[in-house]
Amino acid sequence: MYVHVNSIKQERNIKMNTVVHKSDSRGFADHGWLRSRHSFSFAGYYNPERVHFGALRVLNDDKVAGGQGFGTHPHDNMEIISIPLAGDLEHKDSTGQSEVIREGDVQIMSAGSGIRHSEYNHNQHQPVEFLQIWVFPKERDITPRYEQKSYKAADRLNRIQTVVSPEGGEALTINQDAWFSLGNLVKGTSLDYGLNREGNGLYAFVLKGEATIAGESLLQRDAAGVTDTRNVKITADTDTEILLMEVPMEF
Question: What total of structural domains would you count in the chain?
């Protein structure tokens, strides 16, 4: 089901545009060892209305069987973010990086002028669940780079914790005017997300629970893309975990 909503907001006389993507409307691939949900067109799934949201090109919700994974393959000129939700993901790439990414970690790889990497379930007897996210870069053909950090869930209790930003610092550095944030909100908590850059949009993805975002009721794994506003209201209707991806709409 694809729902498009235009809602008029009186604040500053801005017309806020919202697109809602329900969980069961995503593309689905079952390769046996891999079960993947695609928020945007990817591989064998194509929806002309869901190719990308601004600079956000891919949001794959992957579950990989024990000991299985993606063999060595190339990428270029893409910012690739991996967020494990359960289990451990083993990463190797042509820059010499060899890491295990665990729940609570966030990884970013700037493919730049070209990189080869592999991703495998680090464990033999349990699946790994993770989000793989691609963002179009701001600058092309940069030197490939890799970065990984751990974040505590307690630091995002009833607040937004920025894990990816152009400035880096405590967040991972991305080659784009984009900000990724996580939030763990107790039922009834409300907050306003202020966009960092004019012209950006916000793609909000509910990891667990239920929330009202920009006036839209969202269940687990539902998403809402919001544009033409500088502030987005978020209310947790149950205990909720959310991922917020702020990206340029023109790039």
Answer: 1
